[in-house]
Amino acid sequence: MPMHARVTQFQIRPGKLEEFAAALDSMIPLMHQQKGFKSLIVLRGDALPGANPQATVITTWDSLDSLRASEENLYFYRAMARVLAFSDGFPAIHEHEVLVSEHSPAA
To answer: CATH for 4-97, among 3.30.70.100, 1.20.1050.10, 3.20.20.450, 3.40.50.300?
Structure first.
């Protein structure tokens, strides 16, 4: 069964990047409690010099069912509320099938 990913793109409010990252970091233990959760990666990108930071949050799941079931869990809404406090507008959220993936074991 192929792995699936949720890709969420945020526009971060000025001066709130560190709080945004800390909010996500604080939720990692909750993510590990979700059935089918595999990994989290958060990427920072700036569209233009001086523009508000952008962040892309990627979570991977063992199946599309696990990904979608996580959205029906109160954890998902609490997590979204935490990070939205540091974001402008509602993020773009997309589902993807993972075609290739490789993760090094933890050192």
So the answer is: 3.30.70.100
Provide the whole-model pTM.
Answer: 0.87
pLDDT tens for each residue of 17-59: 999 999 999 888 888 989 999 999 999 987 677 778 899 999 9
Measured CA angle at 31 (ends 57, 88), to 5 deg: 35
User: What tokens were used for 81?
Assistant: 């509320």
Residue with tokens 């809404």: 77
Give the type of residue at 27. M
**Cα Rg of the chain (Å, integer):** 14
